[in-house]
Amino acid sequence: MKQTTIAAPGYHVPVLLHESVDALQLRPGGIYVDVTFGGGGHSREILRHLDADARLYSFDQDADAERNIVEGDSRFTFVRSNFRYLKNWMRYYRHEEIHGVLADLGVSSHHFDNESRGFSFRFDAPLDMRMNRSATMTAADVVNGYSEEQLADIFYLYGELKNARRLAAELVRQRTAAPIQTTAQLQEVASRVLVREREKKEMAKVFQALRIEVNHEMDALKQMLHAAIGLLAPGGRLSVITYHSLEDRIVKNFIKAGNAEGKVHQDFFGRIEAPLKSVNGKVIVPGEEEQTTNPRSRSAKLRIAEKQ
Hints:
Blueprint: H1 17-22, E1 31-34, H2 41-47, E2 55-59, H3 63-66, E3 76-79, H4 86-92, E4 98-104, H5 109-113, H6 139-145, H7 148-157, H8 164-177, H9 183-190, H10 199-215, H11 217-231, E5 232-242, H12 245-257, E6 265-266, E7 272-273, E8 276-278, H13 288-293, E9 301-307
Helix pairs in contact: 7-8, 7-10, 11-12
């Protein structure tokens, strides 16, 4: 076994690094999955605690992340795939059970800082927002191709914007004259209907809603969590970092009830039937120092669960 570094300096600063990895209660010879490889920070920390016969599988659908890998560690396997296919890939590698899953959800700092990807309104760039650049649908396709009603639903459900209908109507009116192709064009149109005192926060929600739709993030998250529950061995751990209320609610519901809706099922005697039990009743948030040095961490919440 060769010890390697699998993180790219400056690509992405991992959030709640030690807290999320410690939550896995790593077994030296265990089988683990990091479903959000990114710059490799969490994966590198996991590998520090594993023996030669352990295995770590790290998922990422972005080719940029794949370039961060340093070859040479027999314990490590990179899986270039959306984490929604977790179950399929574990079957491919012949693992019926795993001992832990770590997920750092949302968008990496690399994506926000890359001017060409269209994830941030700080830069003027094509309206792309694809995490997997081989996917066909972009944010421009959504903005220019969805109906007014569909756009309103996206901005309301995924951006939690109260003025979602006004925004959708303004976008449809504008695109009739000329397609909206760049982040700057989207920002200019959206600014007409957003509340000026909250414009920056609401603009972030506009971009968040489109990104979630383009990448089918909520559906992928539900599929991954369902697969993780089925794969975890008794006593196995789930460690998930969330950044906005939509994904946090889904993770919380899966931990509580084993489903996205949070519907609790009871047996004949009234006992709650749930495959997981929460390890931290109160969510773990980054300390003041981490929030100061890593702004992305300010909205982060860590939830930990154990397979019963």
